[in-house]
Amino acid sequence: MGDLLYTFYGDDFTGSTDVLEQLAEGGVPAILLLREPDEALLKHFGNARAIGIAGDARSQSPEWMDAHLPRAFAALAQTGAPVVHYKTCSTFDSAPHVGSIGRALDIGARELGGIVPILVGAPHLGRYLAFGTLFARAGDVVHRIDRHPTMAHHPVTPMHEADLRLHLAKQTDARIALTSIDRIQAGEAESFFLQAVDDGADAMLFDGVDEPSLVAVGQVLLAHQRERFRFAVGSSGVTRALIHAWHAQGIVPPPITLPRAAPVDRLLVMSGSCSPVTGAQIAAARASGYATLQADVDALLQGATDEEERLVEAAIRELEAGRSLVIHSAEGPLDADTPAAGAAIGAALGRVSRTLVLRSGLSRLLFAGGDTSSHGIAQLGLDALSWAAPLERGAPLVRAHASEAALDGLELVLKGGQIGKPDFFETVRLGG
Fold first, then answer.
1. pLDDT digits (tens, 9 = 90+) for 83-115
2. In terms of Cα–Cα distance, which of 334, 338, 243, 348 is closest to 295?
């Protein structure tokens, strides 16, 4: 694997496929592994120049991270790639007790050494970091993240602090310097980075508000990888910044025209999202003729297999009638006192989806919701995913690789709760 440019660990599955999309657009062959790599698996995908591991750390405790992330980071580092990227959501939602980005930062710094660059801004996704403060687009309006209509009220990791250094200070004792956007625009990103190294900072947070700022940061990252850092934290802005640098240096050729996906006659959507964006998509799908099935969440949480069987049998009837179908646990935001249970719901919906794919011969499947995607796809028994075609920014079509013939080649979309226009489900079915 001597030609590898970059490796990453996605803290959830939707974010991991976002990286695949960036790499595909940049002309970089990549593979996303659904388990830690071994020699045989790496050899099978020997043409890749970027390798990722899709994880679910975003929904896990710091103790879980202590037990699992060192091994994952070491496996990626052993490929010989110069960079291991801990890929976070561009909304950076996390908390000291769950999905702690600070704990992941500490582990990566300890295992791989060097200062840790942090780049969260992802203007291609409507996420902007200015003077250390995070903003995110919702519809046509950009909100400070602690005033965002969804992320400020996330059921698991609500964002109550927009200054990311203050946000991380609740999760780590790392000393975090800042290269602000005015310094980047003045051409001083590298000098600020090197000064932080000399001053003994543990991490450097870079602002990012537009493509030129990502270009400038990418040049710094490429110039100092291996020597001053091997581990980076942040959104797919990290990936995009590096791609800009690879193109500028002629390390990878300009990307080719991306293929388009063909339509399918039926689409199965498994939604555990409680986002109002996904709720609007469910309503739009129903209006356009999709069948919808509401899951009994209490029964799923109690482990009632008869509820999973009910969903399967009802779904089979709709699919055999030629209809596309949405199975959902919610349709919009939950009540404030409703406990979050994304992992359990995602796993249950994953088991249902596996049965339906095997019984119905479906060729395309959509998971909606970050936890749903991470815990649902883990039930399918896949080895890896590769990019297949663009659909909508942040939610590409990907292709499954599996030893089980009925699942090998299955097309998937893993959609975060906030991603997509109201007609997104039909966009997925039609292939764009």
1. 999 999 999 999 999 999 999 999 999 999 999
2. 348
Burial label for 316, CB within 10 Å (0-12, 13-18, 19+), is middle
Superfamily per CATH, domain 6-248: Putative sugar-binding, N-terminal domain (3.40.50.10840)
Instruction: Report how far apart, in Å, the C-alpha atoms of 292 and of each of 118, 263, 282, 373 are.
Output: 41, 20, 8, 19
Give CATH for domain 268-430.
Answer: 3.40.980.20
Residue 383 has, within 13 A of its CA and on its CB side, a CA count of 14
**Does the pLDDT of residue 335 top 70, yes or no?**
no
Question: Domain locations in the chain?
Answer: 6-248, 268-430
CB–CB of 121/89 below 8 Å?
no
For residue 300, report the phi and psi dihedrals to the nearest 5 degrees: -65, -40
The four Cα atoms 199, 202, 207, 210 give a dihedral, to 10 degrees, of: 110
Structure tokens belonging to residue 391: 């659909």
Q: What is the pTM of this model?
A: 0.88
Phi, psi of 164, rounded to the nearest 5 degrees = -70, -25
